[in-house]
Amino acid sequence: MKKTGKTVVWFRRDLRLSDHAPLVAAAQRGQVIPVYILPSEADEESLGAASKWWLHHSLKQLERALEAKGLRLIYRSGPLLQALDEICQETDADGLVWHRLYEKRSVEIEDLILQRFRERLDFVEGFPGSLLVEPWSLMNQSGSPFKVFTPFWKRCIQRLSPARPLPSPRGIESPTNWPRSEGLDDWRLLPSIPWADGLSLEWQPGEQGALAQLDALLGERLLAYYDERNRPDHEGTSRLSPYLHFGELSPRQIWAALDSFAIRNGIGGLTWKGWQFVSELGWREFAAYLLYHFPSTVSEPLRAEFKHYPWDSKKTHLKAWQQGQTGYPMVDAGMRELWHMGWMHNRVRMIVASFLIKHLLVPWQDGAAWFWDTLVDADLASNTLGWQWTAGCGADAAPYFRIFNPITQGEKFDPNGDYVRRWVPELASLPDKYLNRPWEAPVDVLRAGKVTLGLDYPHPVVDHPFARQRALDGYAKMRNA
Ligand SMILES: Cc1cc2nc3c(=O)[nH]c(=O)nc-3n(C[C@H](O)[C@H](O)[C@H](O)COP(=O)(O)OP(=O)(O)OC[C@H]3O[C@@H](n4cnc5c(N)ncnc54)[C@H](O)[C@@H]3O)c2cc1C
Fold first, then answer.
1. Over 80: is that where the pLDDT of 262 sits?
2. What fold, for 304-480?
3. What letter would DSSP give residue 76?
4. For 135, which of 200, 346, 456, 481 is 20 to 30 Å away at the CA?
5. DSSP string of 155-180?
6. What does the pLDDT look like over 110-144, one tens digit per residue?
7. Measuring from atom 46 of ligand 1, which residue has the nearest CA?
């Protein structure tokens, strides 16, 4: 049968060619016009600097992969609706397809697209694929959204048996006339300061990089994941987060890869410790689910009483934290890792977030904004969940009185000090005993370690016992308000 359709494939955070249902559907209809539209500020939260860096390189990779199939990637700037309108008219397209996203503004725009284009085009469809479960499909027994992870995830697992991922379509037909395209370089997504060198050293954005990273997981790292996932001094986690965020890999592909790995190694079943990894994907699902049902939580606490917390936001403290100069080595190591590689280990994210909120009393929104700008995996849903969880004001959150001790956390999860020594090299020669508490080191130990506090490394910005008590007092005040 002759395929006569002409379909615009609107790439968004699904920068891959495999397991791409919209692309498959478009290829089945006929000619395919792949498009990426840089959203305007009204369309989406503006991207942070690290995300822009990633996006630039990821789009370059996608462009190359499409070229290998005889296609181009058309670049256009938003507003999204206007850009899509123009492209459909310029190309005389009769179809428009995309992967769904679940943030409030994305949902609203998709609704508008459906309204506007369904009348004009023959085939208009948003496909699932960024998540394992559509957020509107799960409710608790009383018909409300889940606010606790365990029952949410239990219900998901009962439902889940994801279909096999789709292969990348072959022999895709290109359009007879291409629409105009802007230049990716003209978008100036790359930073103008040399900060991104570390990102280039550590990451390979794009689908190939994603598959290589998944491959690196499927072996010893996966088998040891359960025991190693809290150790920032080891490369014990998957580092798949930016690939998942930009959709260079789908959660369904990961699920299928784990499944095959378990079958190959004769260790199937949900009791296998490797499935602990799948429940981390569950947290990603939970984050997207919560943001879908509670969109105001990007800026407001889910638990309203936290609006009255007596914050004490000194800009100097925020700056010291951002620069990794708080005088608490584990906190500073994490913040410097973030600056260097645009990523931070989950355990350390919790430690630095707790420190900012509870030791320095800086509002969690300020920390979330810094993460948003500097993380290559910056994700509105996961970042919001992470910060609200740590602050104690979100769904299924850590209780407020659980205040991470940055000293003992360092000693416990970085027992040999390798992580701190890597990122805070000025303390590298201190013995383990004082590595996380250099202010307690006797003068001769500091001298032997070539450290002068206040000169080579800062004094602590705040005293831990004092800060802990102050945070608890603030909590009591809030509860009595
Ligand atoms: C304050 C704070 C802010 C955070 N901000 C983000 C963010 O902007 N983007 C982001 O992707 N994650 C965020 N996280 C969650 C988590 O830290 C990262 O997903 C994880 O460190 C990524 O490393 P990984 O890929 O090696 O994780 P792995 O341990 O290998 O986990 C596999 C995947 O599961 C998902 N995942 C794991 N833990 C979580 C979690 N707690 N919440 C949501 N998804 C999770 C991620 O997609 C991750 O890639 C944040 C956590 C905290 C405490």
1. yes
2. DNA Cyclobutane Dipyrimidine Photolyase, subunit A; domain 3 (1.10.579)
3. E
4. 346
5. HHHHH--PPPPPPPPSSPBPPSSPPP
6. 999 999 999 999 999 999 999 999 999 999 999 99
7. 241
CA distance linking residue 320 with residue 315, whole number of Å: 9
User: How far is Cα 187 from Cα 466, in angstroms, rounded to an integer?
Assistant: 48
Contacts of residue 322, Cβ cutoff 8 Å, sequence gap at least 6: 335, 370
| Residues tagged active-site | 280, 283, 311, 346, 364, 387
Give the atom of ligand 1 at the shortest distance from the alpha carbon of 286. 43
pLDDT, averaged across the chain: 94
Residue pLDDT, tens place only, 303-332: 988 888 888 867 789 999 999 999 999 999
Is the domain covering 131-165+205-293 a CATH 3.90.226.10 domain? Answer: no
Burial track 386-413 (b if 16+ CB lie within 10 A, e otherwise): bbbbbbbbbbbbbebeebbbbbebbbeb
Please count the residues of the chain.
481
Minimal-distance CA residue to ligand 1 atom 32? 280
CATH no. of 5-128: 3.40.50.620
